[in-house]
Amino acid sequence: MLKVYGIKTCTSVRKAKKYLDEVGIEYEFIDFKKEPVGCDKIEQWLKEVPIERLFNRRGTKYRTLKLKELNLDTQGMKEWLCRENLLIKRPVIELDDSKVIVGFDIQEYEELFK
CA 99 to CA 63: how far, in whole Å? Predict the structure, then answer.
């Protein structure tokens, strides 16, 4: 079954869930705040998407933690993703064990789900 990872209050997550509901695709929603993902899951996602796509530099958590000042390299970004799930760009959708989509892009969704 399709899995959608994110937080309930995220606008992009809400758009993705609404789209999936409208086209009748069943999914399981995993809330980062209630069920944080560990490094194993993040490592799995990074096999499918580049870390620059998964690491959210535009979010409140990134600014609050002042991570821009640290000039993080790839390893540093990965460590922060493992430590703080709210730095993960949302939503993360697992179509199966090998296909991962990050973010909400209506064109990409229409290509994949129609």
Answer: 30
What is the distance between the alpha carbons of residues 61 and 98, in angstroms, rounded to a whole number? 28
For residue 97, the model assigns a pLDDT of 64
Q: Which residues does the annotation mark as catalytic?
A: 10
CB 4 within 8 A of CB 88: no
> Which residue ranges form the domains of the chain, and what is each CATH number?
2-113 (3.40.30.10)
pLDDT along the chain (114 residues), means of 10: 95 97 96 95 95 94 92 95 96 87 95 86
Secondary structure of 2-63 as H, E, C letters:
EEEEECCCCHHHHHHHHHHHHCCCCEEEEECCCCCCCHHHHHHHHCCCCHHHHECCCCHHHH
Residue 55 forms beta bridges with which residues? 88
In terms of pTM, does the model score above 0.90? yes
- The whole-angstrom distance between residue 62's C-alpha and the CA centroid of its chain comes to 14
